[in-house]
Every structure is written in structure tokens, then in C-alpha cells.
Amino acid sequence: MNNPSNLGLPIGTTLDRFIKKKQDEFEYATGELSQLLRDIGLAGKIINREVNKSGLLDIGGAYGSKNVQGEDQQKLDVIANIRFTRALHNGGQVCAIVSEEDEEVIKLNTNGKYVVCMDPLDGSSNIDVNVSIGTIFSVYRRLSPLGAEVTQEDLLQPGTEQVAAGYILYGSSTMLVYTTGHGVNGFTLEPSLGEFVLSHANMTYPTDGKIYSINEGSWNEFDQELRDYITWCKDNNLTARYIGSLVADFHRNMLKGGIYIYPSTTKVPEGKLRLLYECNSLAFIAEQAGGVATDGQQRVLEIQPKAFHQRSPLYIGSKNMVKKASEFVAKESKEMS
Ligand code: P6P
User: What confidence tier does 58 reach under pLDDT thresholds 50, 70, 90?
Assistant: First the structure.
């Protein structure tokens, strides 16, 4: 397989060379965003090393504290947060980070042009059972002047303002998948080289699929419309696949076609996933790959954030599958994307 990227770069091109080549596409082709993406790649390689060793070193299991969501932090959550923050600080391009692991914003370089929102290690409770986990990130251009104090407006931009978004999947292989608004490309870590190399050029979401991903254990907390949709899936011979790790479910569905749903329920009316560094990041990727992402009612990317860690329901995946789900759950029929 040697389908070249949309730049004609062949499979096997290193991430560094790919970023440099695509730099011309960036509206601010001065290299800062390229540097930022390289910093993320570096942090991903370091975290990959820690994740792969977690069974051998005493870095698995709970850290003994809770994050802003009240969830038990895993030791690797904390390590991943430190690694990403350090890599982005040293790279110098980022003025602030909104991280799932920190209640308050992490202020870095006052002259940094970019804001990063991230979940350093999503699904980390799966670490101890060797299930794939992931890093999710979004990049925004700051609105306030360089050198000034970071503002709420810098940090709470709608997903439509993202200049880049991506995820790193620590699975049977480790992959970095990202977009800068010009399509989606996937890079696989070649451990013997320590390099991410282009392996999945121009990734596209199949417009349809046979996989639906939702935790049916919450059936009793679903509203009737959602139950009716799930029953429709069963009546139409769809397959249920739910890993319990968002990045892994999203990635599989993007390769094979499918829909992932984390809905509003009676227990979590706002849903469980966070808008800034889970829903928006994957929604940007999904749309760039021809997929769709809503909160059940509206396009995720158009939601105006009001708080760093606010949650949102998420229906994301193949265009026709999200559309079908919307026929059941959307309160009013409107074009989702
Ligand atoms: P539940 C992991 O905690 C996560 O944020 C996603 O990665 C995953 O899809 C979801 O929550 C699992 O949540 O409530 O089904 O266990």
C-alpha cells in the first residue's frame, strides 16, 4: 500500500518531514505550529515508553488523588500530564494548556501563540488490564496579544476555531493521527527508529458502517428515543463494539465505519466526555475525514464553551450513521453538518 498523502508524500515519510512539507498549508507558516506538533510527537514517544513499561515499573494503578472531575487519577495520568506540559513548555510555542488533570489553566510562555487543550491519557483505568489508551489534544491560536495575560476568550473558543487536533493511540502499535484542517493523516511509531512514520494517508470516515459503540449497561438511564435507536441497530444487524477507551473506539470506527455514542443519561445529563479536549478534538478530526459529530442536537464544533471542563453528549462517526441516530434523538430535524 503506497497511497501517497495529499502532498504526494509516500507512506513511510517521517512525521518531521511531513510537517515541514505541509507547513506551507498553515495560515501562519512561520514554523511555530510545526514546532508545536513536533513537541506533541516527542511527548507521545516518551509516554509510549512509560505506557509500555507500566506493568514492569510501579507506575501502574491509582496515584491516590482525584482530578477535577473527581475521578481517581492513575499514576500514568499524572506522568503523562507532566510529560506533555514539559514538552510544550520547552517548545516555547504555547501560552497556556487546559488539561483534564488540572482544574486551573496551566500558564506557560506569555509569548506563545497557541493554546492547547488536552486529555493527556484518556481511558487510563484500562492501563492495568493492557487495553489501548490514548492522548487527545486540540490547538487554538490565542486571541490576546503576545506577551499579555492569557484571557478566558483565548481558552474558551468554539471547536470551529481549532487550528489542529489529534490523538495518540497506545495500542498494538502506537499511532499519532492529526489534522490541521487539510485532511487527516496517521503516523505509526517505528520503535526501532523512534520515529512516527506516515502509515495512513488521507484517512476518511466511511459514510456508513455496521458498528455501534455505546455502553448498553446504562440502558436504564437512556431516554426512550435513544433506546429506540439502539433497538433499530439490533434489528438491522449492526455489531456492538465498545472498548471503554474513546480513542480506541473512535479509531476503529474511522477505519471500519461506525458510530460512537456517549449520550446524556439520567445519571450524567450533560454526558461524561469533556467538550474542550475530547469532543471538539475528535469532532474536528471526524469532520476533516468526512464524518459527523453532534451532541445529539447540534454540531459539536459550534458549541460555545462556558467552562474548561464542561461536558457534552457525543454522537460521532460515519455520516449516515450519525444522521440515522439523529432521526431518533434530535428534537428538531436540522442539517448536522
Ligand atoms: P463508561 C474513559 O474513562 C472514557 O472517558 C472514554 O475513554 C470511554 O469511552 C468512556 O469514558 C467509558 O465510560 O461510563 O462507559 O465506563
Answer: low
User: What proportion of the chain, given as a percentage, has pLDDT over 70?
Assistant: 89
How far does residue 247's CA lie from ligand 1's centre (Å)? 10
CB of 311 closer than 6 angstroms to any ligand 1 atom = no
Q: What average pLDDT does the segment 309-333 reach?
A: 95
Do 274 and 103 meet the contact criterion of CB atoms below 8 Å apart?
no
What are the sequence ranges of the domains in the chain? 13-200, 211-330
Record the cell numbers describing residue 293, joined without a space.
459529530
Arithmetic mean of pLDDT, 269-290: 98
> What is the side-by-side strand order in the sheet with 314-317?
239-240, 211-213, 259-262, 314-317, 292-294
Does ligand 1 have an atom closer than 6 angstroms to the CB of 215?
yes
Residue 122 Cβ contacting ligand 1 at under 6 Å: yes
Residue 180 identity: T
**CATH code assigned to 13-200:** 3.30.540.10
pTM: 0.93
Instruction: Kindly give the distance from the C-alpha atom of residue 214 to the centroid of ligand 1, in angstroms, as a whole number.
Output: 10
pLDDT at 230 over 60: yes
Separation of alpha carbons 256 and 106, rounded Å: 37
Pocket test for ligand 1, best of 71, 119, 122 (most atoms within 8 A of CB): 122
Task: Enter the C-alpha cell of residue 257.
Answer: 465505519
Domain range 211-330, CATH architecture: 3-Layer(aba) Sandwich (3.40)
For residue 241, the model assigns a pLDDT of 98
Whose C-alpha lies nearest to ligand 1, atom 10?
244
* Residue 162 backbone phi and psi in degrees, to 5: -60, 140
CA of 251 to the centre of ligand 1 (A): 15
Question: Which residues 6+ apart lie within 8 Å of 255 measured at CB?
Answer: 203
Query: Measured over all CA atoms, what is the biggest interatomic distance in the chain, rounded to whole angstroms?
Result: 58
CA of 275 to the centre of ligand 1 (A): 14
Closest CA to 92 of 38, 47, 41, 46: 38
The whole-number pLDDT of residue 128 equals 82
Query: Which H or E run includes 179?
Result: strand 174-179
